[in-house]
Amino acid sequence: MTRKPLIAGNWKMYLTRAEAVELASAVAASSKGLTDREVMIAPAFTSLAAVQEAVGGADAPIRVAAQNVAWEKQGAFTGEISAPMLQDVGVDMVILGHSERRHVFGEDNAMVNRRLVGALEFGLTPILCVGETLEEREQGNTFKTVEEQLSQGLKNVQADQMEQVVVAYEPVWAIGTGKTASKEQAQEVHAFIRSTLVALYKKTLADSVRILYGGSVKPENIDSLMAQPDVDGALVGGAALDAESFARIINFT
After folding, report:
1. DSSP string, 42-96
2. Coiled coil located at which positions (predicted)?
3. Which residues are annotated as a binding site?
4. From 98, 100, 132, 190, active-site residue
5. Is 1 domain-assigned?
């Protein structure tokens, strides 16, 4: 089964609105004419509307995503943002369960699941992030951690909803450290994720789910990572903030 690659840039808490528009315009230029892959960028909440306009609106080839979303339509949830608010500015994707949300802000699997189920109910495409810490890898618990995050994060998600979900494997020990999982390490965990999806759903569905790799993705390693059979794209952090580097990653060979 052919899975269209997805190259996603997570801009985290960087860039003013003007800086975000400048970078988004450069990414749009780098992505022009590409039909065999998808490109997504996730700016800060304050830049979503401006970036959506800069790349050409909701019908543009570049998808604009949010970095989190609440599970309720509205309410007394200070500091949160709802799916209808995101959709109001043309956003249709959201990153959920990123390691920084888990390890810096204390979001557990139940919280991630609540957000993911809510996102699906409102028609957003969630990117569910899973991945182990260095300690968990050294203790031989990589598969255990990833399986727990995957199965608990997808609790109550039905098969027809799962068709809208993207999974991202991001080894925590490789995020922002300059260390990258080797192509063999990435493929091993991606294959495990797909086999877990087979157990949770069925093979035909698991074969259709895109699994991205995230963890110090750079122009120097994107080609070898994308050559792996179960690596369907990348969730890029630091390199996505540099127009030239991200352009090279988007145009992997």
Report:
1. E--GGGHHHHHHHTTSTTSSEEEEES---SSSSSS-TT---HHHHHHTT--EEEE
2. none
3. 10-12, 176, 216, 237-238
4. 98
5. no
Q: In terms of residue numbers, what domain contains 204?
A: 6-250
- Model confidence pLDDT, tens digit, residues 183-228: 999 999 999 999 999 999 999 999 999 999 998 899 999 999 999 9
Q: Say whether 98 is catalytic.
A: yes
Task: Evaluate whether 174 touches 182 at the Cβ level (below 8 Å).
Answer: no
Give domain status of residue 240, yes or no: yes
Buried/exposed 224-247: b ≥16 CB within 10 Å, e otherwise: ebbebebbbbbbbbbbbbbbebbe
Tally the domains of the chain. Answer: 1
67 neighbors 73 (Cβ within 8 angstroms): no
Distance CA 60, CA 52 (A): 8
Catalytic residue check, 170? yes
Q: Phi and psi dihedrals of 197, rounded to 5?
A: -65, -35
The enclosing domain of 193 has a CATH number of 3.20.20.70
Specify binding-site residues for substrate: 10-12, 176, 216, 237-238
User: Which amino acid makes up residue 222?
Assistant: I
Report yes or no on 94 lying in a domain. yes
Q: What is the pTM of this model?
A: 0.96
Residue 167, classified by CB atoms within 10 Å of its CB into exposed (0-12), middle (13-18) or buried (19+), is buried
